[in-house]
Amino acid sequence: MSSLSKEQRQALxxxxxxxxxxxxxxxxxxxxxxxxxxxxEEVAKALLMDDSTVRDYDKQYKANGLDELxxxxxxGSSKHLSEIQIEKLKTELRYAVYVTSADIxxxxxxxxxxxxxxxxxxxxxxxxxxxxxxxxxxxxxxDALKQEEFLREVYEAIKDKMQPxxxxxxxxxxHPQYNVEPAYGWIEKGTEKEVRSNTGRxxxxxxxxxxxxxxxxxxxxxxxxAQSTIALYEQLEAKHPTGTIYVICDNARYxxxxxxxxxxxxxxVEQVFLPAYSPNLNLIERLWKFMHKEVLHNHYxxxxxxxxxxxxxxFDKINAGSYTAELDSLLTENxxxxxxxx
Length: 342
Hints:
single chain; 342 residues; alpha/beta; Nucleotidyltransferase, domain 5
C-alpha cells in the first residue's frame, strides 16, 4: 500500500484536477485510494479494473513516481489480433475463467504469439465486451434443459388452463437468523463502519406463499414440516374460497409426506413440483432475498422480539402496498435458466 506525504497527496490531487485524460485520472485515484486504506481488490472493483492492474500502478508509482505512473505503456490493442483470433479468445473466455489479466496475456502469447501487457489486455477485454466480476455459485446438479422443459410444458400449460377463480402461488420456507448481516453501503473513505451483532443461533421459521399480484400468506412455526405445510394450504384455501390453487414448490421431503398427500385428496390445492436444483424458478426466492435486504442487512436488533416484529412488519408492508414498486420489478416471469454456461 502507498504511504504518501502531504506534499505527494497535494501533487496527485493537483495533477488530477488538471488532467483531462480519464486513464491518467484513474491511475491517480488508484494511488490516493490505496493511501486511504482501500485494498487492491476494493480499488479494482470501484474503478472497474483488474486487481493486477491496480498492483502495477502501485509499483510504478513507488518505483519511479508520478511521471512514470502517467506514462502509457500500453502495447496491446484489438489490432494485434485478427478477427478470427479475437473470436477464438472470446470463446476461450466464455468457457474458462481467468483470475488475472496476466493469465490471459500468457494464453494469448502461447496461442497466438502476440504479447500484451496486463494493462493492455484489460483494455482489449473491455473493448471486446468482457468485465471483471465474481463468478456466480449455482447448484452443482442444475439441469438447464429440465428447467426449460418445465417452463414450456408445465408452467405455461398451467397458465393456459387457469380459470378466473384459479390462483397460482410460489411457496417455500426460509429461516432468517437473529443476527445482523453485514452488507455493502456508502461509507466514508478511510473509515470503518461497525455494526453490532448478537450471539447464539436463534432464528424464526417462516413458511410462505406469494403470487404475481403480491398477495402473500405466511406462517411462523416451530419448524417447517408436513403439518405447517398443511396449515399454510388451509390459509390459502380460506383466502380463496373458490377455484384451484396451484402451488409451485421444490422437492422438500415434507411436500411428499403421506399426511400432505392425504390432505390434498380433498383439497383445492394442487402441488406443482419444480425440477430438482432449480431455486431460480421459484419466485418466492426473490422475495426472501428482498426480505434479507430490508430487514437484516446492516440492521441490529437488541432483542429477539424486535427482530421478530421486524419480520412481521415486512409482510404487513407488502399487504399494505408499501413495496409495490420493488415487487413489480422483482416478481416478473423473467426466469433465468442456470447451468447452461457451466
